[in-house]
Design brief:
The structure holds 2 protein chains of 2 kinds. Chain A is mainly α. In chain A, 83% of the residues lie in helices and 0% in strands. Chain B contains 13 helices and no strands. The chains are: A mainly alpha, B mainly alpha.
Chain lengths: 94, 325
């Protein structure tokens, strides 16, 4: 059987790669933000996959706490970036 | 046989999440991209549940799929013209450099994960958490880490959220309200909002010994407020501005207050006395829930509500003078 840790870690790395590449390639702010969020989700996935020890083992709660704060910080940072972008748009329009 | 089925399930989840990520990042249509991103959040919530992280599954379903989705969907119309005017891709040389660097980074990360999982015999923190769990005041290990063992991190995280929201509030006015909702949505909201508020309270309380806690509860409360705002824009105008400001900072205020109180009892900052730890954590979590809910709601609104400056006219002169949109 495939190790779930490895499988989901590789998926997280894939997500991170897709997100990073698109963040750098896109020029639209909203597309970049979405891509950045996808990459961030990939990092979270790596953390949680490594914390998972298998069906019978205890999971490691420390990465869980880190990712939980990470999700909340990510949404706040996204809101801040959107507000900055909106302000830029307004200044461009003037 | 069961193992094989689980493996097929896992591989399907991984392929689905990678496909959704690729589709989100490659489409030029922002409406489609945001919708795919919300779907990605929901699949991630299932993956968290599969990897025995129910706390995260709850948070991801509410924040990643719900609040981020609402935030991004309402932001789409703020960026109307960019799709057609600018070339959306860089020149092919830059594209190749970016591809190569990303690929290199992915290979290095794969090696690092492989090494970490199979080659090294590093110390796992879970044993330390488990051995100290009885003195933490709660029995949910994630809550114990968040609000006792690494309470400092959580305090600073609340500060990060507050900083982000203060930036949002100082940059813009609140977005123009959407038109009033249909009777169907209004009727549903009337049932759903009280249910969300009660669920939020339940998540807050249950976080001590089962999946849940301040973040999930705060996000759930914010979701209720956003739903209220979407269905009836005037419903949040009842909130007094000074009340809103107090709610925004009460989490950090109570957190620091408890920390200093613990210091005055000849302990370290935020080192809880095991006998009171459970009650202290609940008090902090209650305040943090209110702050997180207020912060996420204001972040969704995208700027300060009308009349925010009129409460304090001296401040508004120094702020960027955003036009109400």
């Amino acid at each position: 059987m495939i190790s779930q840790q490895l499988l989901f870690s590789l998926a997280g790395i894939g997500l991170f790669g897709i997100g990073l590449r698109a963040t750098l390639l896109h020029q639209m702010l909203l597309a970049r933000l979405l891509a950045l969020n996808v990459g961030g989700a990939g990092v979270c996935l790596i953390f949680i996959a490594v914390a998972y020890g298998g069906i019978e083992q205890m999971v490691d709660p420390v990465p869980h706490a880190l990712v939980l704060t990470g999700i909340v910080v990510a949404v706040s940072a996204t809101a801040m970036a959107l507000a900055l972008g909106r302000r830029l748009q307004e200044l461009d329009d003037e | 046989m069961i193992d094989l089925l689980w493996s097929i399930f896992d591989i399907s989840l991984v392929l689905l999440v990678l496909f959704l990520a690729w589709a989100t990042c490659s489409t030029q249509d922002m409406m489609r991209a945001v919708t795919l991103f919300i779907a990605l959040g929901l699949i991630l919530a299932i993956i968290w549940a599969r990897l025995k992280a129910p706390d995260l599954a709850l948070a991801e379903a509410v924040i990643g799929a719900g609040i981020s989705g609402a935030l991004l969907l309402s932001a789409i119309k703020d960026y109307p013209s960019t799709t057609t005017e600018m070339p959306s891709r860089r020149s092919s040389l830059v594209e190749w450099i970016i591809n190569g660097m990303t690929l290199g980074l992915v290979i290095i990360m794969s090696w690092a994960v492989w090494h970490g999982l199979y080659m090294s015999d590093g110390v796992r923190l879970s044993e330390q958490v488990m051995s100290h769990l009885p003195v933490s005041g709660v029995s949910n290990p994630v809550t114990a880490v968040l609000l006792n063992f690494r309470a400092y991190d959580t305090l600073l995280e609340l500060a990060v959220v507050l900083t982000a929201v203060l930036t949002v509030l100082n940059l813009n006015h609140k977005r123009a309200d959407v038109s009033a909702a249909s009777a169907l949505l209004l009727g549903m909201t009337r049932w759903l909002v009280p249910l969300l508020v009660v669920t939020s309270g339940y998540l807050l309380w249950v976080g001590a010994h089962a999946p849940g806690g301040a973040f999930q509860a705060g996000a759930m409360l914010a979701a209720a407020m956003i739903l209220l705002q979407l269905s009836n824009p005037s419903s949040l105008q009842g909130f007094n501005l000074s009340v809103l400001r107090s709610l925004l900072v009460i989490g950090i205020f109570v957190f620091v207050l408890v920390g200093i109180w613990m210091m005055s009892l000849n302990q370290d900052f935020l080192a809880f006395n095991p006998a009171w730890a459970g009650s202290l954590i609940l008090i902090i979590e209650f305040a943090a829930t209110l702050s997180i809910a207020t912060a996420l709601t204001l972040a969704y609104l995208g700027g300060r509500p009308m009349g925010w400056e009129s409460a304090n006219p001296a401040d508004s002169a120094t702020k960027p003078n955003g036009k109400p949109s």
